[in-house]
Amino acid sequence: MNAERLKALALPVGLLIVLELWARSVDIHSDALAPPSAVLLALFNAFGDGSILSATRDTLASAFAGLVVGGAIGLFLGIALGIFQPLDRLMEVTIESLRPIPSIALLPIALIALGFGYRMEIVIVAFACVWPILILSRAAVRSIEPRLIEVSRALRLSPGDRIRKIIIPAALPRIFLAFRLAAGIALIVAVTVEIAINPIGLGAGIMIAQQALRPDLMLAYLLWIGLIGYALNAGLLAAQQHLFGPAALAGEVR
Amino acid sequence: MTSVALRKDISSAQLEKSHIAFSQVTLDLGGKTIIENVSLDVKPGEFLCIIGASGCGKTTALRLAAGLYQPTSGHVSFDGEPMRAPRRDVAIVFQDYGKALLPWRTAAGNVALALETIGMPKAQRPARIDELLKKVGLPNHADKYPAEMSGGMQQRLQIARCLAQEPKALLMDEPFGALDAMTRQGLQDEVLSLLDASKATVIFVTHDLEEAIYLGDRVVGLLPHPGRIGIDLPINLPRPRDQLTTRENPEFLRLRRELFDFIKASEA
User: Fold this and answer.
1) Which percentage of chain A shows pLDDT scores above 90?
2) Cβ separation of A155 and B145 shorter than 8 Å?
3) Residues A123-175: tens digit of each pLDDT
């Protein structure tokens, strides 16, 4: 396993070395590229003055808040539409016409309505997160073993108990997967909003570095965003396996 | 002697009233008639087995008795009341035990589900769960998840959950169909002794003719396409039954022959 990991690291590390050697040999003066050593130094300095930490806090706070708001709405709608087919048919046109709208296209409206800052960014992230969670939790509820629904009918569970004791636990592994995918989307959308217009967070950090003609700092931000995304996914994946190991397995076997 | 006579009087008084009654029940599903004009009375405490070729509507008949399906015409009643929805005092044991158990709950948790629905206070549940698991032969498996148990154990667990409902009637849909022969015989005897204690009425669907004769007080055979009653045989074999001697009884062999001929004729 460790040997495998080392092998997987060989390619990116090798590329970095080649890039470094090439950058030094031609002594580049570029507005877009910088030698890896300069990027690492810029990242180190950005940690030193705290600028990248406060930007990370802003981005993650917006992304997380948007994920929670959008996730809650998506989950509620997904479960409701999964259970009540007539409601699903009623909502179908509305949902299918809202869903294809790129969340970033809401930016002008959100900006007028809410101005710059966290709130506008949270709304746009939430909009982006509603859909994958709605669609996946609706599918999760629909794919629950029909026998379990019959068991709940035979036991005469109340609608509340049926949702709480059967539907949610049965769908939970897949709902968690939906949240994991939406977390990645939340980070992407948050950074995009910041690059496009919102003067906070990591995206704004990239724009400032670009305007200051600091490709090393710009790439340092990119590297850092990549690392955050990787850590986020790895953490959620570990949590998923830890929480749903046996249950997820039992769910997959069918 | 007098007490025996007395018991007989009580039971014959009960026999006047049928417990589960189908009257002229027809069920259409998806434009097809699955069950046609079935009338059937099941007496309190009776162990009724339903047999028939595959696709004859055995399972559908059981679901009608459970209130999971509503008849297209005619009606199903329980203790004289129309069966419009499932009832907590009628428990159903599904064939596919692996799908009918909650995989995220332990054995104890699965039994607890039924206790929660009948509103048993939390403090009383652990003792009752222990008792039920012991009854079905799973006393040391309370903390195991269904995925960690064998098929026979999972089916025992499902039976424990049904017994937790304290049912007046137990409906069993080919409960041992997916188990190996030895496990199946063991479970047959356990079910007989469990029911001896609980006195519940049973409708037991099976495709195994010997199983039906071995367990039942009465065997009803269905004819396919559409499902209707083709044969209704009382089983007058002595109880308690025994896997060896009962199955060697000439009456057992005669009944097996009669049912076998019935199935053959129904498939022709």
Assistant:
1) 77
2) no
3) 999 999 999 999 999 999 999 999 999 999 999 999 999 999 999 999 998 99
What pLDDT score was predicted for residue B172?
96
Q: Are A221 and A206 in contact (CB under 8 A)?
A: yes
Which tens digit of pLDDT belongs to each residue from A25-82? 887 778 788 888 889 999 999 999 999 999 999 999 999 999 999 999 999 999 999 9
Rounded CA separation B136/B132 (Å): 6
Residue B90 DSSP SS3:
strand
Q: Is the dihedral of CA B78, B84, B88, B92 positive or negative?
A: positive
Q: Where are the alpha helices (DSSP H) in B136-249?
A: 151-164, 181-198, 209-215, 245-248
Rounded to an integer, what is the distance from CA B7 to the centroid of its chain? Answer: 24
Alpha carbon of B17: minimum distance to chain A alpha carbons (Å)? 24
Tell me the per-residue pLDDT of B141-162, one tens digit each, with 9 for 90 and over.
Answer: 999 999 999 999 999 999 999 9
Å from A251 to nearest chain B CA? 8
In angstroms, rounded to a whole number, what is the distance separating the alpha carbons of residues B243 and B176? 16
When scoring B113, B116, B154 by the number of chain A Cβ atoms within 10 A, the one with the most, hence best to mutate, is B113
- Cβ <8 Å between A155 and B117: yes
* B104 → chain A, closest CA residue: A247
A166 touching B (Cβ < 8 Å)? yes
Contact in structure between A157 and A165 (CB atoms under 8 Å): yes
Name, in order, each residue with C-beta under 8 angstroms of B92's C-beta and a sequence gap of 6 or more: A150, A154, B62, B66, B68, B86, B162, B170, B171, B172, B173
* Cross-chain residue pair B68–A148, CB shorter than 8 Å: no
Nearest residue in B to A153, CA atom: B86
> Are the beta carbons of B145 and A250 separated by less than 8 Å?
yes
- Backbone phi, then psi, for B176, in 5-degree steps? -110, 10
CB B226 within 8 A of CB B56: no
Contact B264, B231 (CB under 8 A): no
